[in-house]
């Protein structure tokens, strides 16, 4: 090709991107396109305190840089299509490697059916009871699909669920675990007259069955056991159980790291039962029906990160029927209205990769269900796991205050005793996802709670 | 800002070319545009240290003027050079080495000197050596002094080679600062070279880096020889393609502006000896040390003990230049020992080419192990792994580390093939002799561009913030 033609073509390509990206950004801000409706937005890399000379100018420059990055990343033509295409190609290539390596390392272990036991036929004839033939035993296997170790992402086959598996050195995990246990102890010691409860939203990685399915991956079961053994015995503890892969499929989303409504409901029941043992005045768990929200098929955090396009891994969306729940005040979040909106289909077009869990459940700060009915007021130190359960738990207390790390707190310090005094707190529940509760990941390590 | 950022490729670069094109008849305007854009390029990542650059430009401008002014007064001229040199070395010592020096003194003597924690100004090693070459060449009378501070600034901070070289000596581009043209052939060459460099960085170096980083951060004892060699081959390719890729991009961009930077790499992994390797690797640095340290100290035209001291000085400084860390100094001294051996008692043994080549590669890879590892114990573990101390290796553990992926292995294979000149030379002779062949070659370059952009787009997609919920 002549230099002239080559230069013209390359220049045209670069100019096209240069000119069209700001136009796409403008159209997105005007609501005509949606390129900037993404979780991939760049934010200023640093923020200068007001005490720094020229802070206003410096912060404006940082915001400008983030805007330019957003324009020339998220708004380049066909950005989403390019990313999806590359992710899909990576997934196809990864599956090829996974299938090859599995057959080299583990042989063919897809399904090992167990033959039906016919020896019971005589017994059933004698007893007059018909027995079902035993179900074939399914061998589950985790396939690595993405990641560089910190973390790695897997699918569990043939269950069609996805898992994020953290990686870190044993030394680092132990160090973080000790820090978290110390924090929890300090929280309790600073106001020992209150009742303390801890509930952990566990992961597959924390369970007994993890190592059988995730060959070669890091198991955190020993750290979970250490956590349980070293938690102050006066603190009541419970956790979301996964004894089998079927439990995992039932209680958490396939493509997201959060618990689904089945897990939320079970967790709520476990928490209230745990609290009931000490304070029966709060009552036993209420019963709720589970409703599927029609028309939603979504891909959550894990699926979105790896670019999952196979709908077998997508989730439907279910909620509880909150219509018989008592009304509450003190919170702009109205769970009954949300239920109505979702069931009316108002959120159905949010998109496959929209965060339906976060849209429905949302972080909340305060619920006041009734006053002087139980005489008990609850403080929940939570995260996004507690979003889904807070309103349910709060319905058993007079007033409930929620602090969800790290957003509602951000980098602001919270005075623990001020909250206790202001709201007459009698009970404290720490309800978090295990990677945060045990290891303080994702900025959740209680260091913004002033205890002294 | 990095060359391999979408904002640079589709925001900064087109705007720069449009502004330069608008000033195409006015060289002064072009140099000012280059200076301004280069300042913005640097300030994008390091706004505070832009002042350091300005101080360096100002200080060296004055030093150059003083040296020229005192050209007939030897003592004053020497003092001006000395002050200029101390000024430049002082800047780099304070900002790059002060923490390391203080910590080393504390570790050796058990003292308690406060260790300054100064973040490293990016590119300081490159632009300091670059400007040193200017004042020394002015002193030697090899180049005329630059009396336009804006032109000197444009030379020093020109964004193509500001943060990662090559170290462009002033004499290389002195004339082009004041008199240069850009032909369509320059643009064609420059764009092709830039795209090839981008491909080297994004498609090969970045993928090789994932293998090296994952394995070297993991349990080398379970990875064994297989994992250790895989890690080190990956790192050997990563560092070459990362560095040479950046050099290609710098040389390509320079050419589009009318600057002819010198080549920085010449197929270093074809070397037959460590000596040969250093004639092919980071040529701008090794020639700098040769011309400004080794030869002024007497080179090899001195007594043997003095020659050994000269070599020790050069290789100590080479190691130190690469980083403020004991492993970098160790790496430099490692080559000192190897080079002395090659020039003395090993000189008669270099007769079998293939054996020489294999030995040279082994020396290079072991050297990279010293360079890359963060501690002596890690060096020992990785070298132990490479030489079978921990057995052959556990394929399951390597698989669990996540490095067995097709794109990474394509990158490794392409990297190995691309590190020798023969396949590309053969391809060129087959393809580029006809017009159709040339079109095919250019289409291949465009494919490299598209795939690199696609990979950069994929790499820019990081919605991990959701995991904070």
Morphology of chain A: globular
Could you describe the largest sheet of chain B, including whether it forms a barrel? Answer: none
Largest sheet of chain A: 6 strands, mixed
Q: Please report the distance between the alpha carbons of the first and last residues of chain A.
A: 74 Å
Strand content of chain A: 15-25%
Q: Helical region count of chain B?
A: 19
Q: Can you give the helix content of chain A as a percent range?
A: 40-55%
Largest sheet of chain A, order of strands side by side?
A: 5-4-12-9-10-8
Q: Note the beta-strand portion of chain B.
A: under 5%
Q: Multimeric state of these chains?
A: heterodimer
- Overall number of domains of chain B: 2
Largest interface: A-B, 61 and 58 residues
Q: Rounded to an integer, what's the Rg of chain B over CA atoms?
A: 23 Å
* Series of H and E elements of chain A: HHHHEEEHEHHEHHEHEHHEEHEEHEHE
Q: Extract low-pLDDT stretches of chain B.
A: none
Describe this structure in words.
The complex is a heterodimer of chains A (452) and B (469). Chain A is an alpha/beta fold and 452 residues long. Chain A has two domains: 20-77, no CATH class; 168-450, no CATH class. Helix content of chain A is 41%, strand content 15%. Chain A has 15 helices and 13 strands. Chain A has helices at residues 3-29, 55-71, 79-106, 120-127, 170-190, 210-213, 221-230, 245-251, 261-278, 301-306, 335-343, 356-361, 384-394, 416-423, 434-439; strands at residues 141-147, 152-157, 161-165, 195-201, 236-239, 290-298, 315-320, 366-368, 377-382, 399-404, 414-415, 427-433, 449-450. In chain A, the strands form four sheets. In chain A, strands 5-4-12-9-10-8 form a six-stranded mixed β-sheet, with helices on both faces. In chain A, strands 1-2-3 form a three-stranded antiparallel β-sheet. In chain A, helix 9 (261-278) crosses helix 13. The radius of gyration of chain A is 26 Å and the shape is globular. Chain A starts with a helix and ends with a strand. Residues 109-128 of chain A have low confidence and may be disordered. By secondary structure, chain B is an all-alpha fold. Chain B has two domains: 6-180, no CATH class; 187-272 and 350-459, no CATH class. Helix content of chain B is 73%, strand content 0%. Chain B has 19 helices and no strands. Chain B has helices at 6-22, 27-45, 50-69, 74-109, 124-140, 149-157, 170-178, 184-217, 220-257, 274-280, 283-294, 304-322, 326-343, 353-372, 376-386, 395-400, 406-418, 421-431, 435-460. Chain B is globular, with a radius of gyration of 23 Å. Chains A and B meet through helix 1, helix 2, helix 3 and helix 10 of A and helix 1, helix 8, helix 16 and helix 19 of B.
């Amino acid at each position: 090709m002549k230099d002239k033609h080559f230069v013209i073509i390359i220049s045209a390509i670069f100019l096209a991107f240069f000119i069209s990206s700001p136009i796409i950004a403008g159209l997105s801000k005007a609501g005509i396109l949606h390129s900037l409706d993404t979780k991939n937005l760049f934010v200023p890399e640093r923020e200068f305190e007001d005490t720094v000379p020229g802070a206003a100018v410096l912060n404006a420059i940082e915001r400008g840089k983030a805007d330019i990055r957003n324009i020339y990343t998220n708004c380049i033509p066909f950005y989403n299509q390019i990313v999806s295409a590359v992710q899909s190609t990576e997934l196809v290539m990864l599956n090829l490697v996974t299938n090859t390596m599995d057959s080299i390392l583990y042989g063919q272990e897809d399904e090992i059916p167990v033959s039906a036991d016919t020896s019971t036929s005589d017994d059933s004839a004698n007893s007059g009871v018909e027995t079902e033939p035993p179900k074939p035993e399914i061998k589950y296997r985790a396939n690595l699909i993405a990641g560089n170790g910190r973390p790695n992402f897997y699918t569990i086959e043939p269950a069609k669920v996805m898992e994020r598996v953290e990686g870190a050195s044993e030394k680092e995990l132990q160090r973080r675990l000790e820090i978290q246990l110390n924090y929890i102890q300090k929280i309790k010691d600073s106001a020992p007259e209150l009742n303390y409860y801890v509930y952990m939203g566990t992961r597959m990685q924390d369970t007994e069955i993890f190592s059988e399915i995730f060959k070669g991956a890091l198991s955190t079961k020993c750290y979970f056991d250490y956590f349980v053994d070293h938690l102050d015995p006066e603190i009541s503890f419970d956790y979301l159980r996964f004894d089998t892969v079927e439990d995992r499929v039932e209680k958490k989303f396939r493509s997201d790291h959060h618990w689904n409504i089945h897990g939320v409901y079970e967790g709520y029941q476990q928490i209230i039962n745990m609290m009931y043992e000490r304070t029966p005045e709060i009552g036993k768990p209420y019963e709720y029906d589970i409703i599927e929200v029609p028309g939603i098929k979504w891909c959550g955090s894990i699926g979105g990160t790896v670019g999952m396009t196979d709908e077998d891994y997508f989730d439907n969306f279910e909620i509880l029927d909150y219509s018989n729940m008592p009304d509450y005040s003190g919170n702009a979040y109205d769970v009954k209205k949300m239920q109505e909106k979702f069931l009316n289909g108002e959120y159905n077009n949010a998109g496959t990769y929209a965060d339906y869990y976060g849209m429905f459940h949302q972080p909340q700060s305060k619920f006041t269900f009734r006053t002087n009915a139980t005489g008990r007021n609850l403080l929940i130190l939570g995260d996004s796991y507690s979003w889904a359960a807070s309103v349910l738990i709060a319905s058993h207390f007079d007033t409930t205050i929620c602090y969800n790390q790290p957003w509602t707190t951000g980098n602001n310090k919270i005075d623990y005793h001020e909250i206790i005094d202001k709201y007459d707190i009698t009970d404290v529940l720490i309800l978090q996802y295990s990677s945060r509760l045990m290891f303080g990941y994702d900025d959740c390590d209680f260091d913004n709670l002033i205890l002294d | 800002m990095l060359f391999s950022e979408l904002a640079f490729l589709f925001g900064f670069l087109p705007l720069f070319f449009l502004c330069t094109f608008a000033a195409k008849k006015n060289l002064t305007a072009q140099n000012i545009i280059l200076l301004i854009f280069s300042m913005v390029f640097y300030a994008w990542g390091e706004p505070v240290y832009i002042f350091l650059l300005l101080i360096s430009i100002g200080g060296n401008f004055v030093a150059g003027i003083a040296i020229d002014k005192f050209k007939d007064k030897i003592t004053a001229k020497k003092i001006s050079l000395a002050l200029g040199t101390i000024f430049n070395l002082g800047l780099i010592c304070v900002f790059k080495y002060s923490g390391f020096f203080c910590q080393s003194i504390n570790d050796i003597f058990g003292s308690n000197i406060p260790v300054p924690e100064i973040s490293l100004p990016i590119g300081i090693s490159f632009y300091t050596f670059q400007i040193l070459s200017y004042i020394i060449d002015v002193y030697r009378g090899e180049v005329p002094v630059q009396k336009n501070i804006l032109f000197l600034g444009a030379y020093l901070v020109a964004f193509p080679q500001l943060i990662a070289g090559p170290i462009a000596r002033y004499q290389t581009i002195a004339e082009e600062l004041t008199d240069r043209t850009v032909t369509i052939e320059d643009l064609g060459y420059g764009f092709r070279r830039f795209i090839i460099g981008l491909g080297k960085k994004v498609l090969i170096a970045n993928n090789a880096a994932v293998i090296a980083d994952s394995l070297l951060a993991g349990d080398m004892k379970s990875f064994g020889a297989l994992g250790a060699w895989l890690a080190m081959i990956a790192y050997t390719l990563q560092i070459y393609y990362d560095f040479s890729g950046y050099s290609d991009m710098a040389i390509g961009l320079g050419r589009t502006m009318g600057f002819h930077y010198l080549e920085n790499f010449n197929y270093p992994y074809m070397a037959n000896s460590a000596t040969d390797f250093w004639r092919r690797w980071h040529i701008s640095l090794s020639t700098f040390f040769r011309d400004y340290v080794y030869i002024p100290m007497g080179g090899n035209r001195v007594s043997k003990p003095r020659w050994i001291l000269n070599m020790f000085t050069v290789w100590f400084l080479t190691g130190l230049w690469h980083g403020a860390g004991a492993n970098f100094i160790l790496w430099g001294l490692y080559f000192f020992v190897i080079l002395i051996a090659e020039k003395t008692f090993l000189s008669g043994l270099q007769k079998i080419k293939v054996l020489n080549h294999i030995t040279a590669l082994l020396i290079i890879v072991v050297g990279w192990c010293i360079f890359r590892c963060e501690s002596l114990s890690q060096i020992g573990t990785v070298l132990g792994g490479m030489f079978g101390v921990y057995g052959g290796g556990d394929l399951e553990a390597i698989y669990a580390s996540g490095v067995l992926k097709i794109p990474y292995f394509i990158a490794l294979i392409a990297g190995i093939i691309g590190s020798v000149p023969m396949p590309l030379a053969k391809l060129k002779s087959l393809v580029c002799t006809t017009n159709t062949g040339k079109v095919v070659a250019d289409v291949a370059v465009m494919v490299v561009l598209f795939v690199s952009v696609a990979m950069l787009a994929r790499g820019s997609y990081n919605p991990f913030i959701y995991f904070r919920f």
